[in-house]
Design goal:
By secondary structure, this protein is α/β, with parallel strands linked by helices. An eleven-stranded mixed beta sheet has the order 1-3-2-4-6-5-10-11-9-7-8, with helices on both faces.
Amino acid sequence: MSLPKRAAAIRAAVAARQVSAVEVCRATLDQITRTDPPLHAFLHVCADRALARAAELDRHPDVTAPLLGVPVAIKDNICTAGVPTTAASRLLEDYVPPYSATVVERLERAGAVIIGKTNCDEFAMGSSTEHSAFGPTRNPWGVDRTPGGSSGGSAVAVAAGMAPLALGSDTGGSIRQPAALCGVFGLKPTYGRVSRYGLIAFASSLDQIGPMAASAEDLALAFAAIAGADARDATSVDAPAPDPAAGLDGDLRGVRVGVPRELLRVGVEPGVQRAFDAALDSLREAGAVLTDVSLPHASLAIPVYYLVANAEASSNLARYDGVRYGARADAATLHDTYYRTRALFGAEAKRRIMIGTFVLSAGYYDAYYVKAQQVRALIRHDYDQAFAEVDTVAMPTSPTAAFPLGARTDDPLQMYLADVFTVAANLAGLPAISIPCGVTEEQLPVGLQLTGRRFDEATLLRAAAALERRSPIARPAAASI
């Protein structure tokens, strides 16, 4: 028999003893062996650990576990006990955590099998997964194109059928943008909904862990498994996750969708715009009511994000100095130890650390950092005003489809604009989802982004299921290997 591909189907088959967790695990590892070499989605595959875990599940199966026997890939900035966790940086090249992040513990408690760590931009800084110290990841829809970033490895692992589920982290769109460019589902939960304990910090007021999957149902299963308060994360919130099976029947009657059309006038590729317009029609056919809304300060989200995020990054990454954390370069003096160790950072990390240090420096703090925080409050207020009229706000996830490798590496501003529609949700702490909604004339996937009220991920998942029912999701050729 052929093994099921989706998480829900795998869980059902393992629970019914139609297939063993070990068989599922071996098939997944075989798919990685066949498919990953040209794509480079994985930095480390923990085959022995995964097979031992699967065998244990077969010996003592808990048939009520929601992810029983389901293989899951983990972004390499999320700590996993006994498995290398590098954040795609030379600074952590040899780091093997002695503990697991809360999300990893919860996945394993739910019956999941961790199969490996996925490639990403260094310390999650990037929009193309080209800033990994260990080489870029390639998009299975076109190996000469980027998968987006920074969670590009996780998106490719799901898109190419190497894992039914993966975890990413989202600081300014790092789950949603690669999900859109690879044609999979990606959810950034409300800030605080999912514990950040064990996530290697980039920008602490913006970072959020979330799931990626090939279907809305699988996305809901993974989200329910990892959500919930955690005493080890002071910013986590005690808000129960929605029932993963509820509201996924495709009916959107009563749901009000706002469209901020003033943001869509420039910079959106024609193929993306056509797919977006078709997705709005599908939402309307499913019963949703569409209306225009205004987000007057959303156009300022990119500069505000790169001031706030880089300021926090300069503080968080100061610990990698050769003394307290990470690699240590040999040198005769303390000054040279700092100098040579920090030279191990890649170019993009150095750029962001220097920008962040500048905006926090005396004389510039009020002019840049404080001003950015004030505009951040206005962006949050805009969304609060919009949600008085609608239940969710719709935009394209990315203004373009997957762009060629190397096309933007020498133009950081163009790279940053890849996140123009996603960063506002992080600044406001709101949940947002990317839903596959079609392909361009070049057969590259396009994503629809829906942003919701705080802790209303249920409406986003409901809309995702509705669109999935009306528009079957295409898969890249690599997924059928």
